Amino acid sequence: MRFIGAGARPGRPQINHDRVFTIPNALTVLRFMGVPLFVWLVLARKEYGIAVVVLVVMAGTDWIDGYVARRFDQASKLGRVMDPLADRLALITVAVTLVIAGVVHWLYLAALLVPDAVLLVLTLSYFGGHPDLPVSRVGKVRTGLLLLGTPLLVLSRLDTPFAGPLYIAAWIVLGLGLAGHWIAAYNYFWAILRKGRQQSHHDGGTA
User: Fold this and answer.
1) 141: which DSSP letter?
2) Exposed (0-12), middle (13-18) or buried (19+): which is 184, by Cβ within 10 Å?
């Protein structure tokens, strides 16, 4: 079974419906709810083991909701917006939490925020809201790597014989994820510019 685009039915294009109450959307809401739970477990309770379980569940729902949406024709316009928003909220909030907890350096957070900040300014300048661009393959791989590397890093905080190897493995995965983050941001940057200019040209031509 492939991980990217899993559940897609050959020859049947995906249609984003106007539905709100779908299983994928419910799983996305569950991912939103996992964010404050993770923050509480790490900062208030120092329960790194349980926090890892929360991260794994969040990462799992990210894959499952996409699979269900494609396999059972439950893709929706709301989910198209909520899903990447949930991913971004999770990645950034988890990074902020780990910086506060002293697990990662603030430069890691900056490496996540700078590309997103540039894209946000560009998006608001052209569209005033969501640009409605498809999630790129690089973006999906990036998210998967960051969601995998983060629990490995948290696990390395536990007092086990595997702490050292886990720490090294975590930063290899996170390093690849950050590289993918910047590559995806570069691609989105030009995609936003192209779509924004086309929209401006169309609006100017029909005014």
Assistant:
1) H
2) buried
Asked if 59 and 148 touch (Cβ cutoff 8 Å), the reply is yes
The residue assigned the tokens 């509480």 is 40
CA dihedral (127, 133, 136, 140) in degrees, to 10, reads 90
pTM: 0.85
pLDDT tens figures, 25-57: 999 999 999 999 999 999 999 999 999 999 999
177 with 142: CB under 8 angstroms? yes
Q: What is the CA radius of gyration of the chain?
A: 18
Residue type at 45 in one-letter notation: R
In this structure, how many other beta carbons lie within 10 angstroms of the beta carbon of residue 93?
15
Two tokens, residue 181 = 């983050």
Contact 91, 145 (CB under 8 A): no
Residue 89, C-beta contacts closer than 8 angstroms, at least 6 positions apart: 32, 35
DSSP 87-133: HHHHHHHHHHHHHHTTSS-HHHHHHHHHHHHHHHHHHHHHTSS----
Mean pLDDT for 71-96 is 89
